[in-house]
Amino acid sequence: MAKLTRWDNGETIHETDGDIRATVELAAKLGISCFRADLSDTNLSDANLSYANLSDANLSDANLSDANLSDAKLRAANLSDANLSYANLSYANLSDAKLRAANLSDANLSYANLSYANLSDANLSDAKHVPMHSRWEVSFTESPSLVVHIGCKTKSIAEWDAIFERIGESMNIALSMFESPELGSNDDARKIRANYMAIRAYLVALGKHEAAK
Questions:
Q1: Cα(155)–Cα(62) distance, rounded to whole angstroms?
Q2: Is 213 inside a domain boundary?
Q3: Which of 131, 147, 168 delimits the end of a domain?
Q4: pLDDT mean for each 10 residues of the chain (213 residues)
């Protein structure tokens, strides 16, 4: 008998006569939510968890190699140090997920949502179709005026250009741009800047913003 429980209150989510992998697979197949499931340090290699709701679940140190997590909901899930090598994460929602030091080598990340995910020290070698991502999401709004959003901050392109020019390669982004002590990683800062430059180029290519002369 295997019992799947929540990490926050110990409440039983689902139980079967099989092992924990079979229990989670059946829950996913039946559409049973595994929200906040406690699956830390479990062996789920080669498991079929497509469309599973694992939002806010604890999957730290779990073995998910070759697992099918396509279309899975993994929002805010803790996947720190998890083994996701060769896993299928296509169309998975990994927004706000903790992927610190996770092994994503050879994983399929096509169309995965990685907005706000923490991928510091993650292994992405040979990962397939890795989408652009950064700690804070970069997007734009056209009306009533064209502005770019980075995290919770909204500014015009001219204003963002001036900020990034001032920051330069030093990437002291935490103090000079957002005044946020929670972002101190140069790698995170470079990814945010890269995402901004991509959005900017997209807007220029569509004729929504005039390129600098």
A1: 40
A2: no
A3: 131
A4: 94 94 96 97 97 98 97 97 97 93 95 86 88 80 90 88 70 51 61 86 88 53
CA dihedral 186, 130, 49, 115 (to 10 degrees): 50
Q: What is the pLDDT of residue 1?
A: 83
**Is there a single domain that holds both residue 93 and residue 157?**
no
Q: What is the DSSP letter of 34?
A: -
**Reported pTM:** 0.77
With 0-12 / 13-18 / 19 or more C-beta atoms within 10 angstroms meaning exposed / middle / buried, residue 12 is exposed
- What was the pLDDT predicted at 213? 44
**Domain, as residue range, for 153:** 138-205
What are the tokens at 24? Answer: 């989670």
Of 131, 159, 186, the domain-final residue: 131
Neighbours of 166 (CB within 10 A): 11
- Residue 210 falls within a domain, yes or no? no
Q: What is the DSSP string of 46-110?
A: T-B-TT-B-TT-B-TT-B-TT-B-TT-B-TT-B-TT-B-TT-B-TT-B-TT-B-TT-B-TT-B-T
User: The domain spanning residue 31 has which CATH number?
Assistant: 2.160.20.80
| Whole-angstrom distance, CA of residue 110 vs CA of residue 178 | 30
